[in-house]
UniProtKB/TrEMBL annotation, chain A:
CDD domains: TM_PBP2. This is ABC transporter permease subunit. The keyword Transmembrane applies. One of its GO terms (cellular component) is plasma membrane. Keywords: Cell membrane, Membrane, Transmembrane, Transmembrane helix, Transport.
Automatic annotation (TrEMBL), chain B:
This is ABC transporter permease subunit. One of its GO terms (biological process) is transmembrane transport. It is a multi-pass membrane protein. The lineage of its organism: Bacteria, Bacillati, Actinomycetota, Actinomycetes, Streptosporangiales. Belongs to the binding-protein-dependent transport system permease family.
Length: 312, 277
């Protein structure tokens, strides 16, 4: 296990480094010199050269990359060429908001999918189980931002029970904070819950056919008891994998949902950065999101090994 | 042996057929010019030649939906095409040399690309080259390559241990010949299913990108942008969000059902396993 962990950790570090090169190289392709853009068309060559030196863009790309990537490890994302503000604090401010959004969405998805999927599997022969499968198929076809718009229509426009957008920090008012996040959580969670329901259903169906479950039933446990005690842990292995992949999907979905509900998270920061041509900011946010996806994949792989003793 | 034609296959086929029909007809005819701005028709109610009404610029919603279907299919076809053309050979190469360095390299690069979701790629491409339909298609296509490569690799691994491949190898056929004559035809059905599922994901991605302003640029109609433009009018004119939303959901549902249906139809073994369950 330790050997596996070390190997997997090495892969994580290597892929993050390569991803860093890719992100950096991509942004280096950007036409135009940040110093020239910042100073406008009437700048003297001396002023441009001076600013270039200040930005550090006069150095060879390899040095620039090492400087940027080395800084990341210490939480230093550099200083924006456009706003002259340090980027690290902006990202860490937004990271919490996005994390809460994603984890809440995941919680909604799990709360929907585990009971519904298990129920659909246990009752797969009767109409209600089939109906759950059909509804989940429809849920999959609705993107998170569309779900968001529908939820706003129902809960904000019609029922006028919840705000249609905006974000209230928890420190200002915990109640309003919760109200401002309920619809975003649901928009992310309902859709992913629909996807997850299908995986839970098929995973539970798979273990229901296993011999050990039949043995448990033969030993006199009720089928619910047998499933509860022996089935769900085994069914959880494929589900955890999907859950991890979904966490990555949710992270990206959050970028769009933040736009729908005007929530100041990482997605909002990223899109504002692109709109303002703030190269280093975009580079930093993209890197954080990519690193998060890589980290999630790492955690999933490790969890997979922990859950399945056959792999140890 | 082929499976039965199933309900999902028919429903999926009908939905996809409708999208294709709308797109094809839109080349020759739409009720109105979908891009014609006319203040007199601003937010016109449905009726009188305007089946679904007009938007805040007075553009006919139904005509926009028809041309939007074209945008959706165009992006989907190119994106899935990129993914299939790049992903299939890579997956096959990895599957035919399961223990070689090539396989290891391909799968590692695959994992890395997997960490760059379509949306991030599109935002990066958009920042560098300016966002548009082309950058959206390339981003979605590249982000879909790992899915194809994985599926192609898994299917190739299965084909490589069959008797007919062993026989071909014993007969001295080269790798390329085996790949073309034996592997590709036998993993074809898996790839078709993957294409259908990827198409559904591509539609979702295009809609999200257009919604964010990183996809199809105005004035070309796109379902995602129709949704984005309708959002501010949700309180007064919710129908403007309803139709493009419905179009996206039905198109995605169609391709997903088609994929599932094809899987059952092309691979009856899977269907039997599911029926036993």
């Amino acid at each position: 296990m330790t050997l596996y962990l070390l190997k997997r950790l090495a892969v994580l570090v290597a892929s993050t480094a390569v991803a860093g090169v890719v992100v950096f190289a991509f942004m280096a392709l950007l036409p135009g010199d940040p110093a020239e853009i910042a100073l406008g068309v009437n700048a003297t060559p001396e002023a441009v050269a001076a600013l270039r030196e200040q930005f550090g863009t006069d150095r060879p790309p390899v040095v620039q990359f090492l400087d940027w990537f080395g800084g990341l490890a210490q939480g230093d994302f550099g200083t924006s060429y456009v706003t002259s503000a340090p980027i690290g604090p902006q990202i860490s401010d937004r990271l919490g908001v996005t994390a809460v959004l994603v984890l809440g969405g995941m919680a909604v998805a799990v709360a929907i999918a585990v009971p519904l999927g298990t129920f659909a599997a246990v009752h797969h022969r009767n109409p209600l189980g089939a109906a759950i499968s059909a509804v989940s198929q429809i849920g999959i076809a609705i993107p998170a931002f569309l779900a968001g718009i529908l939820l706003v229509f129902v809960f904000a426009v019609k029922a006028q029970a919840l705000p249609s957008g905006g974000y209230v920090p928890i420190a200002d008012s915990p109640g309003e904070w919760l109200r401002s996040l309920l619809l975003p959580w649901l928009s992310l969670g309902l859709v992913q819950g629909a996807v997850l329901t299908r995986y839970v259903r098929s995973a539970v169906l798979d273990v229901m056919r296993e011999d050990y479950l039949r043995t448990a039933r033969a030993k006199g446990r009720g089928s619910t008891g047998a499933l509860w005690r022996h089935g769900l842990r085994n069914a959880s292995i494929p589900v955890v994998t999907v859950l991890g992949l979904q966490l990555a999907t949710l992270l990206i979905g959050a970028v769009v949902v933040e736009r729908v509900f005007v929530i100041p998270g990482l997605g909002d920061l990223l899109l504002n950065g692109v709109a303002g041509r703030d190269l280093l900011l975009v580079q930093g946010v993209v890197m954080v999101l990519v690193a998060a996806v890589l980290l999630i994949n790492f955690v999933v792989d490790v969890a997979y090994h922990l859950l399945d003793p056959r792999l140890r | 042996m082929r499976g039965r034609i199933n309900a999902g296959l028919v429903a999926g086929g009908v939905l996809v057929g409708l999208v294709v029909l709308a797109a094809v007809v839109s080349f020759f005819w739409t009720p109105h010019d979908p891009t014609l701005v006319d203040a007199a028709r601003k937010l016109r109610e449905p009726g009188g030649g305007y089946l679904l009404g007009a938007d805040k610029f007075g553009r006919d919603t139904f005509s926009q939906l028809m041309v939007g279907a074209r945008t959706t299919l165009y992006v989907g076809i190119v994106a899935v095409g990129i993914a299939a053309v790049l992903g299939t050979p890579l997956g096959m190469a990895a599957g035919m040399t399961p223990r070689g360095w090539l396989s290891e390299l391909i799968m590692r690069v695959n994992d890395l690309v997997f960490a760059f979701p379509a949306l991030l790629l599109a935002v990066m491409l958009g920042a560098v080259y300016g966002a548009g339909t082309l950058t959206a298609m390339i981003a979605i296509g590249v982000a879909t390559v790992p899915a194809f490569a994985r599926v192609a690799r898994a299917a190739t691994l299965q084909v490589m241990v069959t008797d007919y491949v062993l026989a071909a190898r014993a007969a001295g056929r080269g790798r390329a010949a085996i790949a073309v004559r034996h592997v590709l035809p036998n993993i074809g059905s898996v790839l078709i299913v993957q294409a259908s599922v990827s198409f559904a994901i591509a539609i979702l991605a295009e809609a999200a990108l257009s919604f964010l302003g990183f996809g199809t640029r105005p004035p070309t109609p796109s379902w995602g942008r129709m949704l984005q433009e309708s959002q501010e009018l949700l309180f007064s004119t919710p129908r403007l969000a309803l139709w493009p939303g419905l179009a996206i959901a039905l198109a995605v549902l169609g391709f997903n059902l088609l994929g599932d249906g094809l899987r059952d139809y092309l691979d009856p073994k899977l269907r039997r396993i599911r029926a036993e369950g």
